[in-house]
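Morning!

This is the sequence you dropped in the shared folder:
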Amino acid sequence: MTRAAPRGPAAATVLPGFLDAHVHLALIDPAPLTAGGIARVLDLGGWTPSGPESPGSRESGEPQEPQGSPSSPVPVEFDPRASRTRPQAANSAEGRAGLPEAVFAGQFLAAPGGYPSGRSWAPAGSIRFVARATDAAVVVDAQLALGASVIKVTLNSAAGPVLSDGLLSAIVARAHEHEMPVAAHAEGAGQALRAFRGGVDALAHTPFTERLDDALLAAMAGRMTWISTLDIHGYGEPDDDFDRAVDNLRRFHRAGGQVLYGTDLGNGPLPVGLNRREIDALLAAGLTGDDVIRALTAEHLGRFRNVLRAPGRPGPERHGPAPADPGRLVTLLRGERPDDPAAFSAWLCTARAADAAEATEAHRSHRCHRARSGRE
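The structure's back. Tokens below.
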């Protein structure tokens, strides 16, 4: 049974800001995210805060116009999947109000002609082709100059050429010199293994094109992070890729690997906010409710501390009613966590992002009510 909330002012649970660790802000209107429970996002390719000096190119050394982004003051883009125009949010304090905190990977780093080139959804300037290991420092440094916290590489052999082993290792080495993790889109036979051997720190998707053996999963669990994105395989109608992904994730998690909640928002019919199907899939993969909350509130990606927080704004050291930073968004949930595990997903999806002052007031009101009712 679900624990009843006290009468009077509704109980509220306050947690650190929920994170979606795989979004594409250039493909969505981000405005509804905070009302949908997402306080933080990691953009994994295609979006950077635009400006007159934003370095964008399709090829190493080939200049292009800066790409559009949800922080651009004017552009309106067309989303071919949604068949509608999307106004983008302004790059100003007023424009950012009500939006989640965002960290990002900048451009997709790909082999010439590699994924996602040729895709209608890939914004102009969002792909950086890398042909030589000697270019690795230049392209990684360009992402750092944009303000990126993570480097994103694509290893999709199902869709075109992929980075060579030597080039991948050079990109990873340069990123690590800057204390930046590298995330990979690994798709196609053997690509997850190549990412691991190349020193990649995170997989942007749970591997889904093949079943990984237990020995490889155990090795990956020792130093890799996986971002879940399970619901993209069928969007509520699970397919074979979904089954393989859940099986891989179950064994990776059991081996002690770090799992982050992520949805690939912008790719297909996904809710702009917490995705209950993604949460249910994580539970089906063997994560407990506490594990899911850890996946939603992570402050670090593997050994890289606070890369999932905007620069200069370290996160709270522990769960609590509100962080010390009044500018930090936290998560408010209705009532207390239910005792019935079957009600857990629905409870999580009551979440909304709130600022620290609102969270503190909600927590104070509940404490006062409990004290008045003799339940403190």
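Headline: Residues 356-372 form the longest helix (17 residues).

More detail when I'm at my desk.
O.
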